Amino acid sequence: xxxxxxxxxxxxxxxxxxxxxxxxxxxxxxxxxxxxxxxxxxxxxxxxxxxxxxxxxxxxxxxxxxxxxxxxxxxxxxxxxxxxxxxxxxxxxxxxxxxxxxxxxxxxxxxxxxxxxxxxxxxxxxxxxxxxxxxxxxxxxxxxxxxxxxxxxxxxxxxxxxxxxxxxxxxxxxxxxxxxxxxxxxxxxxxxxxxxxxxxxxxxxxxxxxxxxxxxxxxxxxxxxxxxxxxxxxxxxxxxxxxxxxxxxxxxxxxxxxxxxxxxxxxxxxxxxxxxxxxxxxxxxxxxxxxxxxxxxxxxxxxxxxxxxxxxxxxxxxxx
Length: 320
Ligand SMILES: NC(=O)c1ccc[n+]([C@@H]2O[C@H](COP(=O)([O-])OP(=O)(O)OC[C@H]3O[C@@H](n4cnc5c(N)ncnc54)[C@H](O)[C@@H]3O)[C@@H](O)[C@H]2O)c1
Known about the structure:
Elements (H helix, E strand, L loop, with lengths): L1 E5 L4 H12 L3 E6 L13 E4 L5 H11 L3 E4 L6 H6 L1 H21 L4 E7 L22 H20 L2 E7 L1 E3 L15 H10 L4 E4 L11 E2 L1 E3 H15 L7 E5 L5 E2 H12 L5 E4 L8 E2 L4 H7 L8 H14 L1
Parallel strand pairs: 1-2, 1-4, 2-3, 4-5, 5-6, 6-11, 7-10, 8-13, 9-14
Antiparallel strand pairs: 9-12
Bound molecules: nicotinamide-adenine-dinucleotide (NAD).
């Protein structure tokens, strides 16, 4: 199978590209390389281009002619999206629209889309099923939800088939690839980096209505996400494929303090923590009900126990 991976130079895209390539898929990465260099891709082919650059995208799609596109390219900072919504509507919504239009022109009608738990907002039911009400708390979640909805209408109009995977908290690393966001906002890399640099880690909010007062999240290893993408792509190649969305998480939540304790236990060193007041928009508890992904695509997370996630991340950050 030929797979084009947008955002394939990023954290999740690059690990997915490597996993697929190692399993014998023909992979082409498409990324504007704004914050990563192609060196991390090793022997994986790539094209430097933006998803809003219809010309380069169109040429790439027509010459590679993928069976399936996996779409990871996006901006991902929720806080930034609140103060600069235009940037997120342009890249995450219009960018997805531009990609889908270019795919249809090139005769490719199958897409796996990197969506987010952020489409739900503050949940009223946990674990969260896919049919939970959707009220995003920021433009980042809103643009992902708008893209999902657009994909549904493109199926009705053009028979364009897509599977959206709503990731909960992607985490973990492989030996050679890990989480390396510019301006990191995710808790595991931030705790590890602070500890390795001998700095304080700032924890926002310890007065949430959770067992220890800190936010609870569902952490899913990036290799398990890559497998969800692979299974979705395989499903899209079958005649019974339908446009749908799945949650991807473990169904088990960990508090921020539990994450800190696990980093301390793996490293054998204390983490120095400074408590700050809550950040706006952080939900109390986000835990996935992923039973549909498990039953319909036979997906099961095999790398996502908390110890394996943090061990892999710690190893990668220590070697960086
Ligand atoms: N990391 C998480 O916990 C998480 C959770 C939920 C959803 N997601 C989604 O997963 C996807 C990947 O996340 P990530 O953590 O790997 O992010 P990342 O920032 O590491 O990777 C995104 C990649 O997309 C590329 N990109 C961005 N805009 C582009 C454009 N206009 N044209 C071409 N390339 C562009 C960037 O250069 C980068 O390489 C995103 O769509 C994100 O919304 C991530």
